[in-house]
Amino acid sequence: MVRTPPLARRAPIVAATVIAGVLAVGGCGGGATASSGTSNVASQVGTVTFEAGSRPAAPAFSGTTLTGASFSFASDKGSVVVINWWGSWCSDCRQEAPALTALAKKYQVKGVKFLGIDIADSAANAEAYMHTFGITYPSLNDPGDTIALDFRATVPTQAVPFTLVIDRRGHIAGRVIGQDTYSGLGAILANVTGGSA
Predict the structure, then answer these.
(1) Which residues contact 91 (CB under 8 A, 6 or more apart)?
(2) Where are the chain's structural domains?
(3) Does 18 have pLDDT greater than 70?
(4) Engineered SS bond to 21: which of 6, 33, 77, 118, CB 3.0-4.6 Å?
């Protein structure tokens, strides 16, 4: 079940650039309608790619990892980055975790970086989740949804899980609302990196 983050309950999200239909997400695999400059991927509902030249720029953001280290998105400039919003309490997050772990390992050799953003969670539960699923890439602790707010004018986060793929120029190349699959997210990464899924 896709869970709406606390941010969506606290304040309305006003977007300057919104894909048609993105705001109408009701549950897991909520429908998204492709608009000009976007297309659906791998028949996975809720998965949209942005064509080169129509990709919104990802905002700069920073935070603290679950291990207490400082992180700045600017440090990943020039890399393809996968950003995944998750919570240990989220059943769809638990179901997609093995695919994310496998894709992170597969694309590490191509310089693709993965970053988790853990929301509405305790440190102990988040650490247990990452250990259980063998997640070695960093996750930021974002209990106040401040990073989601940073994206409100580009591609607003709609629910958890929620994933964005950022290209090497720092633009959003793909978005998944709901549970990632190996084939769906892999297709976006293959397209952005110029490889095969």
Answers:
(1) 1
(2) 6-193
(3) no
(4) 33
Give me Rg for the CA atoms of the chain.
15
CB–CB of 48/175 below 8 Å?
yes
Which phi and psi angles does 140 have, rounded to 5°? Answer: -90, 145
Return d(Cα 12, Cα 156) in angstroms, integer.
11
CA–CA separation, 97 and 105 (whole Å): 12
Residue-wise DSSP of 92-103: HHHHHHHHHHHH
Per-residue pLDDT of 63-88, as tens digits, reads 999 999 999 999 998 999 999 999 99
CB neighbour class for 107 (10 Å; exposed up to 12, middle 13-18, buried from 19): buried
| 3 state DSSP class of 127 | helix
| CA–CA dist 101, 64 (Å, integer) | 21
| Displacement of CA 37 from its chain's centroid (Å) | 19
Distance CA 44, CA 46 (A): 6
Q: At 177, give phi and psi (nearest 5°).
A: -100, 125
**Per residue in 113-164, pLDDT tens?**
999 999 999 989 999 999 999 999 999 999 888 998 899 888 877 789 999 9
Token digits for 60?
């700069």
- Domain spanning 6-193: which CATH class is it, in words? alpha beta
The predicted model scores a pTM of: 0.78
DSSP 8-class letter at 59: P
Strand pairing class (47-50; 81-86) = unpaired
